[in-house]
Amino acid sequence: MRDGEHDFDPRAQLRAVGLRITAPRLAVLDAVTAQPHSDADSVAALVRQQLGSVSTQAVYDVLKACVERRIAATHRAGGFTRTVRDENW
User: Fold this and answer.
1) What is the pTM of this model?
2) How far apart, in whole angstroms, are the C-alpha atoms of residue 76 and residue 34?
3) Are 84 and 8 in contact (CB under 8 A)?
């Protein structure tokens, strides 16, 4: 477990930024937590392992929403990771 990871509650993070809690959103956040810096296709593969079926477009949409609300981030080298959002943002 990485530093601070035990404090990460994806449901609370989604609620804090006004996003509904859905299985694809939770699975995407799980994927970027488990394998930071993964590209969107790798995230989609991890989400499919967890949920069985989800479109690549749905994964891109979730990633975009999470990045826009700063609970995930993109990296210059490519890939996504989650960010820790605290009460002071």
Assistant:
1) 0.78
2) 19
3) yes
Per 3-state DSSP, the chain is made up of helix, strand and coil in percentages (nearest 5) of 55, 10, 40
Q: Which two tokens stand for residue 50?
A: 């967890």
Task: Please say whether the dihedral angle defined by the alpha carbons of residues 75, 26, 64 and 14, taken in this order, is positive or negative.
Answer: negative
Token pair for 73: 């981030």
* Residue-by-residue DSSP string for 54-67: --HHHHHHHHHHHH
Q: Please name the residues in contact with 42: beta carbons below 8 A apart, sequence gap of 6 or more.
A: 31, 35, 79
For residue 72, give the H/E element and its range.
strand 72-74
Q: pLDDT, tens digit, for every residue of 34-80?
A: 998 888 899 999 999 999 999 999 999 999 999 999 888 887 656 66
